């Protein structure tokens, strides 16, 4: 069952910094690509500055998707997950800004983070965390207790599936609770977008009506485009009126 928080508590901050890797996810307002990037060891590259503020050092890479998306719309999510015995997934839903290596604030942020400047660093990503989510992580593999062979050649041998997810699913099915769980948690996204159709149907939603509402929402979502279009329309009408006035004055 997911849990939501308005800020990062001390014990969640400690847990995040003990994980071996974290991931960033971002997307443009338009376009086909959604970006997901694995980042470095949290303890080495990331700092939780306050319950609602996080910064991480961004190293030079083969692309700059996260930076580009933050410049465009500011949206980014950080994800941590446990590969140890105790499963957990944690997400920080954020808005962010980019502080590039040649900006005066860059060195100040590094000092505040208590980090040395890596030679490959191109920016510090400063994030405002507006929501924290934790969930079970039953589907994430764990480090195997029976590692054998050359892990360097066969790294997949270092991991094994957890039995927890199957046990959880079997328990829900036995109690006839799986569908009700889906109806509660899978019918819509955090932003209210339509989700699993069978779950929506189970809640009594009229799918055709929900789909129409979702389509209208998508059309109206780009508020900036609507505002710019209205402004352009008003300016065009005013221009036509001015031109008509000039023509009328010329002929009469």
UniProtKB/TrEMBL annotation:
UniProt KW keywords: Membrane, Transmembrane, Transmembrane helix
PANTHER family reported in the protein's UniProt record: PYRIDOXAMINE PHOSPHATE OXIDASE FAMILY PROTEIN (AFU_ORTHOLOGUE AFUA_6G11440)
Pyridoxamine 5'-phosphate oxidase N-terminal domain span: 37-136
Keyword Transmembrane part of the UniProt annotation: yes
InterPro entries for the chain: Pyridox_Oxase_N (IPR011576), Split_barrel_FMN-bd (IPR012349)
Record protein name field: Pyridoxamine 5'-phosphate oxidase N-terminal domain-containing protein
Pfam families: PNPOx_N
Gene3D superfamilies: Electron Transport, Fmn-binding Protein, Chain A
Superkingdom field: Eukaryota
TM region(s), chain numbering: 225-247
């Amino acid at each position: 069952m997911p849990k939501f928080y308005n800020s990062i508590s001390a014990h969640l901050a400690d847990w995040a910094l003990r994980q071996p890797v974290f991931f960033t996810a971002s997307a443009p307002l338009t376009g086909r690509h959604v970006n997901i990037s694995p980042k470095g060891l949290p303890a080495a590259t990331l700092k939780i500055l306050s319950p609602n503020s996080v910064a991480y050092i961004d190293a030079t890479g083969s692309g700059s998707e996260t930076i580009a998306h933050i410049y465009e719309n500011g949206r980014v999510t950080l994800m941590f997950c446990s590969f140890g015995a105790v499963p957990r997934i944690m997400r920080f839903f954020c808005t962010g800004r980019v502080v590039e290596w040649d900006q005066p604030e860059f060195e100040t942020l590094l000092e505040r983070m208590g980090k040395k400047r890596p030679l490959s660093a191109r920016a510090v990503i400063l994030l405002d965390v507006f929501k924290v989510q934790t969930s079970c992580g039953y589907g994430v593999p764990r480090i195997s207790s029976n590692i054998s062979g050359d892990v360097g050649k066969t790294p997949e041998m270092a991991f094994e599936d957890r039995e927890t997810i199957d046990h959880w699913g079997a328990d829900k099915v036995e109690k006839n609770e799986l569908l009700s769980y889906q109806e509660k948690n899978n019918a819509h996204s955090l932003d209210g977008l339509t989700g699993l159709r069978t779950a929506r149907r189970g809640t009594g939603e009229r799918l055709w009506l929900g789909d129409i509402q979702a389509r209208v929402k998508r059309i109206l979502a780009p508020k900036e485009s609507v505002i710019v279009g209205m402004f352009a329309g008003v300016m065009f009408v005013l221009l036509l009126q001015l031109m008509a006035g000039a023509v009328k004055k010329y002929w009469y």
